From TrEMBL:
<dbReference type="Pfam" id="PF13202">
    <property type="entry name" value="EF-hand_5"/>
</dbReference>
<dbReference type="InterPro" id="IPR011992">
    <property type="entry name" value="EF-hand-dom_pair"/>
</dbReference>
<dbReference type="InterPro" id="IPR051426">
    <property type="entry name" value="Peflin/Sorcin_CaBP"/>
</dbReference>
<dbReference type="GO" id="GO:0048306">
    <property type="term" value="F:calcium-dependent protein binding"/>
</dbReference>
<dbReference type="InterPro" id="IPR018247">
    <property type="entry name" value="EF_Hand_1_Ca_BS"/>
</dbReference>
<dbReference type="GO" id="GO:0005509">
    <property type="term" value="F:calcium ion binding"/>
</dbReference>
<dbReference type="GO" id="GO:0005737">
    <property type="term" value="C:cytoplasm"/>
</dbReference>
<keyword id="KW-0677">Repeat</keyword>
<protein>
    <recommendedName>
        <fullName>EF-hand domain-containing protein</fullName>
    </recommendedName>
</protein>
<feature type="domain" description="EF-hand">
    <location>
        <begin position="133"/>
        <end position="168"/>
    </location>
</feature>
<feature type="domain" description="EF-hand">
    <location>
        <begin position="30"/>
        <end position="65"/>
    </location>
</feature>
<dbReference type="InterPro" id="IPR002048">
    <property type="entry name" value="EF_hand_dom"/>
</dbReference>
<keyword id="KW-0479">Metal-binding</keyword>
<dbReference type="Pfam" id="PF13499">
    <property type="entry name" value="EF-hand_7"/>
</dbReference>
<feature type="domain" description="EF-hand">
    <location>
        <begin position="97"/>
        <end position="132"/>
    </location>
</feature>
<keyword id="KW-0106">Calcium</keyword>
<keyword id="KW-0963">Cytoplasm</keyword>
Length: 199
């Protein structure tokens, strides 16, 4: 049976192969007392809600560099049901599970335990998620999401890359009704598609 948090994630971002993969890591949502302890330590100003700065400070990408603010923004947007740019305790369990699942996913693709994802590891990850991308596109992805110019992708940037890829693919598929990989759209449709993306 799916946990409540998993169902919540499905509702928020829809079913995809990424989420199917993340579901390999299903584990029970920790008890409320444990979560409340974490929530209080993250909620530094004791406002009862977690804002982007608080979440960014609480998350680690395995280096001393600050956690990717874009990824923080994406995650707050996913779990912030009231659209206030903050997360209350009622949504914190789902967010906590989402981060933990991504951590496990990241570790499973970081074959050499280097703490980052190189191009080969990214190829394996995206193939597992069901994407068929050319070598050129893989190079472009690494270049775009490698924030520090090392030719590799950190944990936080990996989440951003996967979420962006998923969102763009979903937007494309809305028009690609026969699923042949081609779409013909008017300039107006293109703009409204791009402008409505939450990335
Ligand atoms: Ca707060
Ligand atoms: Ca690696």
């Amino acid at each position: 049976m799916r946990s409540l948090a998993t169902i919540q994630i499905y509702r928020v971002v829809g079913t995809t192969q990424i989420l199917n993969y993340l579901n390999n890591f299903i584990m029970a949502v920790p008890n409320q007392e444990f979560l409340w302890g974490i929530f209080q330590s993250v909620d530094r100003d004791r406002s009862g809600r977690i804002n982007t700065e608080e979440l960014q400070q609480a998350l680690s990408n395995g280096t001393w560099k600050p956690f990717n603010p874009e990824t923080v923004r994406l995650m707050i947007g996913m779990f912030d049901r009231e659209n206030q740019g903050q997360i209350g305790f009622e949504d914190f369990g789902a967010l906590w599970k989402y981060v933990t699942d991504w951590q496990n996913c990241f570790r499973s693709f970081d074959r050499d335990n280097s703490g980052n994802i190189d191009k080969g590891e990214l190829r394996t990850a995206l193939t597992t998620f069901g994407y068929k991308l050319s070598e050129n596109l893989l190079d472009t992805l690494v270049k775009k999401f490698d924030r520090f110019g090392n030719g590799t992708i950190l944990f936080d940037d990996f989440i951003q890359a996967c979420v962006v890829l998923h969102t763009l693919t979903a937007a494309f598929r809305q028009y690609d009704t026969d699923q042949d990989g081609y779409i013909t759209i008017h300039y107006d449709q293109f703009l409204s598609m791009v402008l409505s993306l939450k990335i």
